Amino acid sequence: DSIALTTSSNPSIQPIYPYQFYSDEPGYYEDGKFGIRLETIVMVNPYTPKYLTANEQFYEFKPITFVPFETNLIDHSLLNAKQVNWLNNYNAETRYHILPLLAGDQRAINWLNSRTQEVRLESTNRDLASQMYIPSIFSLAFLALFIGQIY
């Protein structure tokens, strides 16, 4: 038996339920030149917004695979404060989840630490520092740990 997806399928009509898993694949492509895609597996998590509306259910996507981004491919001077904050939180979460799995392998530990160092705001973006939203680094720590997919 086989399964085929067609171009007529419309994934937007499918409901999203808590604790489902999806692949988040943002990408950028220049026709005939190059492309880059980042992929993370995310879990749908119930979420309560600051200002709750009546009888509405909200969700957020939480990453469950933690692989460092290639630091040589990121121009940090182009990032704003919110993006730097997100990257630093993601790197901290990556270390939190992955370092225990590397116990005893100092070479791997050194590599992970070098790829997840804190990024500082560039001088052109320092005025945005006061606008940074700083969620708890450990907000994801208590989710079901699903690190079977390291790419």
Automatic annotation (TrEMBL):
The gene is ORF130971. PANTHER family: XAA-PRO AMINOPEPTIDASE 1. InterPro entries: Creatinase/aminopeptidase-like, Peptidase_M24_C, X-Pro_aminopeptidase_P. The keyword Membrane applies. This is Peptidase M24 C-terminal domain-containing protein. The keyword Transferase does not apply. Keywords: Membrane, Transmembrane, Transmembrane helix. The chain crosses the membrane at residues 132-150. Residues 57-118 form the Peptidase M24 C-terminal domain. It comes from Arion vulgaris.
